[in-house]
Amino acid sequence: MLRIQHSADSEPVAHDLCTVLELLHILWGRSQEAVPSGPLSPSQLRALTVLEGHDGVNLRALGEALGSRPSSVSRLCDRLEAAGFVERLPSPTSRREIEVHLSRRGRALLADVRTYRGRETQAVLQNMDPAGLAALAEGLQAFRTAAAARIGLPANPGDQRPARTG
What we know:
With 166 residues, the protein is mainly alpha-helical.
């Protein structure tokens, strides 16, 4: 069970969150192979997610968002472009820069991954009591807002979730 701590003592909560994320990685790992659009590595999925929030960034900005070296980002984009998930186009403002855009196929892939992950997550959430589920929802919203601000992304990239009732 997650330990609730005062925000000044976030280390135990961070440890618990890391444990939960490891479980989610296992639970969701199958989605990388199961989506109809094709297999996807974790680094490719991260890049597509960043592009969804910052479509049309240059390779340098994408690398900064991913915390990766420019050469690694370039090779990653080569693979994503070859698979049809991104498009690289000359920047309209600078002839020396290339912008990376999420393609329709890339958007469809993210939707497929989210659908699969949503089904897997829903199966787990159905085993939680209503009070625990409500507390989790509140905590996750706060975490999403803080995490998105830290990495400079919108808090709800690709948010396709249904409206909450009640």
